[in-house]
Design a protein that fits this description.
The structure holds two protein chains of two kinds.
Chain A: H1 2-9, H2 27-39, E1 43-47, H3 51-55, E2 68-70, H4 76-89, E3 96-102, H5 103-108, H6 111-119, E4 125-130, H7 167-173, E5 178-183, H8 187-199, E6 204-209, H9 213-216, H10 223-232, E7 239-242, E8 246-249, H11 259-263, H12 273-297
Helix pairs in contact in A: 2-8, 4-6
Chain B: E1 2-6, H1 7-17, E2 22-25, H2 32-44, E3 50-53, H3 57-69, E4 74-78, H4 80-85, H5 87-95, E5 101-106, H6 120-123, E6 131-134, H7 138-155, E7 159-164, E8 172-176, H8 180-186, E9 203-204, H9 210-242, E10 249-252, E11 259-263, H10 267-280, E12 285-290, E13 292-294, H11 298-305, E14 310-315, H12 325-334, E15 344-349, H13 359-375, E16 384-385
Parallel strand pairs in B: 2-3, 2-4, 4-5, 5-7, 6-7, 11-12, 11-14, 14-15, 15-16
Antiparallel strand pairs in B: 1-8, 6-13, 10-12
Helix pairs in contact in B: 1-2, 1-7, 3-5, 7-9, 10-13
Chain lengths: ~300, ~400
């Protein structure tokens, strides 16, 4: 029964071809497929340096059925602003401009341009597919990498010693009309948020957790399960923020212990039970804060 | 219509007459009046454009890239540090073959902090694939700005209009503002062959592996070669319609000259004055103004200088560890001339960081060149630094 409901809620139109060159089990690829299903063919995508630079295919190929502008690493939000301005001058209010960047291009090198666009409240949708490190260059830490994770620049002797940046809070502080989190494990929720964002004028931001089998050292077939566990453990809660003020959960978060989620991933293999307890404490503390925000704005 | 305006406003008026559709810019001294005036023009509706008030020059150029890729006529302006910050995306704009027009107000690079003029900011962008046009007067600034859009859109390459900080940017001069309808006839709405279009979805700037990349750069180089012709053609059309032309290279009183000064930017006006004074005394001294720097007008430069015994190149810039950049380029351009007609090139570094270039400084260059010529020794490759404290 539930399968029938999901099928009905996901548009059938495919705007991403199967001939892309992503790794097996790539969360970022599924994210693009679902987001484009939500947005439809009247969409222009701009993407900076990220895994998708490769995934979309080399010249003269493209895996997308919508126009695509590749752009420099730190420029997704600025390039999207320019596309929007040109469309405005052409009287085109229907086309959605989608800035599509990884966590490096969003949390780190592109944050200034994103902040600028958000402050100007540019009428764009910015989606960050977050695989929690610089995966395209071979797994280096970003400011989206979680505490304790191994990457090639945070090797086992000195794993990541800072928590993941709270990006939604930064975007909410810009008081943009809409910011939300999503995962590839819940396509109905993800597409619903994308369609909601499409209908709103101004800057919309969707943060999608996109598990990465080579970077997380997990099996290809575990991507969906990991994304689901991230939500259930409250490691990556699903919520939305309207105008920086109304915070609302969009899923159940039973609060499963984090340990099985951590233990599934090779990037956390070196962690001691005490370090995993530290992660649990951090997750609990952030959950409390988020819960209060939701309660406060109810 | 004649108006008295500063160089920066001449840029703004050029952009207004060209009916730019998207502007993305960030303020920096001494460029600010360009964007202030454009903001006013957009606010009053005199210019119907979307002005994106970006948070950095890097984003300014990135937004221009987005807008130009979507088919809009697009403009930005900057200076010095701002231009340097744009460097990465200047390559992108040119490599993507986008006809973006930019005004760069020539300002020296820090440190020490400076807002005054020299050409190291724009010349540092030599190899980014932008056309570069150096202006001498506010009239030339306005005319060149409008011309730039036509050139850019004919060859699908970005164009940089360059003017000296303060000596031009903040100096008021009478400017003949062409009639808007006549400019519309000269520069119709932009027509694109390819753009971001949901009815014709294409991917722009995708991964270009070794089997395809080199041909992309060859096409870019061919467009640059085409631009040499187009710059002249557009200048000639401008002359037919508005009665003014500038040329890629301008020769001034070079007939029978034994010594020719080569300069660019506002130094050209001072050098004209010096040449007039010397000619009055019967001295065979002439002037060549280098207006177009990229693409480099090799043939025009050879034509202007072949057979001149001595050429003094005054560079308001320096490539540290080498020499003045115009001198370097001119030496390379003239190298293939027959030895009998190949001039001796004397390089002078002058006016860096906004130091005033006075007539006596230019006369100093003339005197030193003559002295070197008389000595009969080979021309030294080292530039002479003019007007510096010992």
């Amino acid at each position: 029964m539930s399968q029938i409901v999901i099928k009905d809620k996901i548009p059938r139109e495919e705007l991403m071809a199967s001939g892309h060159v992503a790794c097996p089990g790539c969360g970022g690829t599924l994210a693009m497929r679902l987001v484009l299903k939500g947005l439809g063919p009247k969409t222009i995508v701009t993407l900076p340096a990220c895994c998708w630079t490769i995934i979309s295919g080399p010249f003269p190929q493209t895996a997308l059925g919508v126009p695509l502008l590749h752009t420099a690493f730190e420029t997704a939000a600025a390039a999207a602003s320019g596309i929007r301005a040109a469309l405005d001058m052409q009287g085109d209010k229907d086309t959605t401009v989608l800035g599509w960047a990884g966590d490096g291009g969003t949390f780190d090198i592109g944050l200034q341009a994103l902040s600028g666009a958000a402050e100007r409240n540019e009428d764009i949708l910015y989606v960050c597919y977050d695989n929690e490190a610089y995966m395209n260059t071979g797994i280096q830490r970003s400011s989206a990498t979680p505490w304790g994770a191994w990457t090639t620049t945070t090797p086992v002797g000195t794993p990541k010693s800072h928590p993941k940046k709270d990006l939604i809070a930064i975007l909410a502080a810009h008081r943009i009309p809409y910011a939300a989190t999503a995962t590839v494990a819940d396509p109905v929720d993800l597409i619903g948020k994308v369609q909601k964002a499409k209908a709103i004028r101004g800057t919309k931001f969707v943060h999608i957790l996109a598990p990465c089998p080579p970077g997380w050292k997990t099996s290809d077939e575990e991507t969906i399960e990991l994304a689901r566990m991230a939500v259930r453990t409250r490691v990556f809660p699903l919520y939305e923020v309207e105008n920086g003020q109304r915070w609302r959960f969009t899923a159940e978060h039973p609060g499963d212990p984090v340990e099985p989620y951590i233990r599934k991933q090779g990037r956390f293999r070196h962690l001691t039970p005490e370090q995993i307890r530290h992660i649990q404490a951090e997750v609990d503390a952030r959950w409390e804060l988020l819960k209060r925000r939701v309660e406060f704005s109810a | 219509m004649k108006k008295v305006m500063m160089g920066n406003h001449a840029v703004s008026w050029g952009v207004r007459l060209a009916r730019a559709e998207v502007i993305a810019a960030y303020p920096i001294t001494p460029q600010t009046q360009v964007v202030e005036e454009l903001s006013e023009m957009c606010a009053t509706g005199a210019l119907k454009a979307r002005f994106i008030k970006v948070e950095s020059e890097h984003s300014a150029m990135a937004a221009c890239i987005g807008a130009a890729s979507t088919g809009a006529r697009t403009f930005t302006a900057t200076s010095a540090q701002g231009l340097a910050l744009m460097h990465e995306v200047l390559h992108w704009a040119a490599g993507a073959r986008l006809p973006i027009v930019m005004a760069d107000i020539n300002r020296a690079m820090a440190p020490g902090w400076t807002v005054w003029t020299d050409q190291n900011d724009s010349l540092s962008q030599r190899d980014t694939g932008w056309l570069q046009i150096y202006c001498e007067s506010n009239q030339e600034v306005l005319d060149s700005t409008v011309q730039a859009f036509k050139i850019a859109e004919k060859v699908d390459l970005p164009v940089m209009i360059v003017l000296d900080a303060f000596y031009l940017s903040h100096t008021y001069e009478p400017v003949d503002v062409p009639d808007a309808a006549e400019v519309d006839a000269f520069l119709p709405k932009r027509v694109t062959r390819y753009k971001l279009d949901t009815n014709d979805p294409r991917s722009f700037g995708a991964l270009a592996p070794p089997p395809v990349y080199m041909e992309m750069r060859l096409r870019q180089q061919e467009a640059m070669e085409e631009a040499l012709r187009v710059v002249d053609e557009v200048d000639e059309e401008w002359h037919r319609r508005f009665g003014r032309r500038y040329g890629a290279v301008e020769s001034y009183r070079t007939e029978g000259a034994e010594l020719v000064l080569v300069v660019s930017g506002t130094i050209a006006s001072t050098a004209r004055y010096v040449v007039d004074q010397l000619r009055e005394k019967g001295e065979k001294v002439g002037l060549v103004k280098a207006r177009l720097f990229r693409p480099f007008p090799t043939a025009a430069m050879r034509k202007a200088l072949a057979g001149v015994p001595h050429v003094a190149v005054l560079d308001r810039n320096i490539s540290p560890g080498h020499c003045g950049i115009f001198a370097e380029e001119i030496r390379a351009a003239l190298y293939d001339l027959e030895p009998a007609s190949r001039p001796a090139i004397h390089g002078y570094i002058i006016g860096l960081g906004g130091r005033d270039v006075k007539p006596e400084n230019i006369i100093d260059c003339v005197d030193r060149t003559r002295e070197a010529a008389r000595s009969g020794k080979p021309t030294p490759r080292e530039d002479v630094w003019v007007g510096v404290q010992p």
